[in-house]
Amino acid sequence: MADASAPLSRQSSVLSPPSVLGPQPTAVRVRERRWVLVRRALSARFAPVGGLVVLVAVLVAVLAPVLSPYDPLQQDLANSLARPGGAHLLGTDNVGRDVLARVIFGTRVSLIAGAVSVAIAALVGSLLGLGAGYWGGRLDDVAMRLMDAVLSFPPLVLALALGAVLGAGLTGVLIALGVVYTPTFARLMRGQVLAIKARDYVEAARLLGAPNWWIVKRHVLPNAATPIVVQASLSFAFAILAEASLSFLGLGIQPPQPSWGSMINAGRGYLQQAPWIVFGPGGALFVTVLGLNFVGDAIRDALDPRLRV
Amino acid sequence: MGRLVLRRLLATIPVLVLVTSGVFSLIHLTPGDPVEAMMAESQDPVAKEAVRAQLGLDQPLYVQYVSWIGRLVQADLGRSIRNHEPVIENVTRRIRPSVQLALMAMLVSLAVSFPVGILSATHRNSPLDGFGTLFALFGICMPNFLIALLLIFFFGVTMRWLPISGYVDPLEDPLAGIRSLTLPAITLGLALAAVITRTLRSSLLEVLSEDYVRTARAKGLAERLVVRHHALKNGLIPVVTVLGLQFGTLIGGAVITEYVFALPGVGRLVVDAVFSRDYPLVQGVVLLIALGFILSNLVVDVVYGWLDPRIRYG
Hints:
- The complex is a heterodimer of chains A (309) and B (314).
- Chain A is mainly α and 309 residues long.
- In chain A, 71% of the residues lie in helices and 0% in strands.
- Chain A has 12 helices and no strands.
- The radius of gyration of chain A is 23 Å and the shape is elongated.
- With 314 residues, chain B is an all-alpha fold.
- At the A-B interface, helix 6, helix 7, helix 10, helix 11 and helix 12 of A face helix 1, helix 6, helix 7, helix 11 and helix 12 of B.
């Protein structure tokens, strides 16, 4: 990756002048660049494994009703705590529900929780960071002190406290996790915007009389997007872990609806007789988070090799 | 040095104002009536009105805020609506197990991460390094509660070596106390060890490629001494930063760990307060934890400035 001294997205925008100064990049060049990024991402050591895991997780979440061998809520007391194998690949829980079916439907909750909370955080954080960095002044002071205040709480404690007042349920958890992750994105975006604002091409555009919204849209956002995408991909895995932790503690989606965290919590009372109730969803959680981490690292390496650890 | 401390203290003031305001507004974020939420099981309107008056919720918002801040300044964090005891007393009673757990977890994490991180960096790309990197990755991807349940399953349920729940104070009965805290400390320590191992490995690798390390090797110094006297000292600076940053994770991990192992600590108090909808207790404990967190970050910043003069004068 000798040519990867600077992120491609940044190079492209620096080299391609705004439309008032020159032509737009051609569609072919954009496509070529995309392929370079995909090739780079796939060349990372564990990226293909991670990609496969994420692909399977997404397919399982989307096709849950088709793939699930049983209704995840269907109780069968005569068949409770059945060992894995035969009719129930991952066994059954204390009221005879199929663990595999519940793990499959739990995938939906985990992926939705991860995606939505990170999307909320990325959107709100980016807007705050953009405003703070671009317009500065009072807005910058207020927004950044607010972010400092949010960062003054340990993440899980803040999520618990917010979850407590918003009430148990998936919505409360999504909002709580969105709030917890917002400062990371706001700080990142602000730093990017401050750096981009000082570049010559932004100054040139301003001198040419380009309005603020145009400069933000044409120069600031495309150049600041890379670290936000990298951060979002890395936060996704942690958001899934956080949702599982909250639903393990009893917040989040409420029983009997399946989620990995609440299944593990329900199974811990049966660890001696039926450890599969814990290890089924536990394994799914671990493998998914591991896969997402591999993918996140690969995206980071492909988009910004300088961030590589 | 004094200027750094003063600068950091001044920067903390607006954050403190916002943190206290945030904690104050927690109770008002409840959809609907907070008193109804707290006393959902009660049908007694008189009792509900009493709680409303006790919390001052029948007064205008600004009056509530000013009187809340006034009480805070006098170190009055309010009373639990369940056991009617002051929040401070609730926390004081629970702090000992939490501190003991955190200290033991820190010990476990250092005892694991230092050998693994150093061996990983000094044997780069060897199977040993592969093991170290995998250990760090697994530790980061594995949630606390899953590590806890795996430990309970193997060491508590299957081999029956260690107790799986309950707390004995090590200051009263050292052996039983340490046994009761071993599995929780390993649970909390392993997650921390993973992060420290990763940081120590990468910072040591960077330092080991520096010119002064090459000089030390060139003058014939044994590799062991090169690592111990030359590389480790500089390689530790990022570890100190990460340790500071991990306080939040440590507290969050303690909440889960205390919950799983039924330890009567502050983390368990937060969970209990949340589920009994004891909002004054939630507010008080969350505020105390946030203050502790701000203070620990302040200490880490100052220590870091002391370790690295570039920050002090930056």
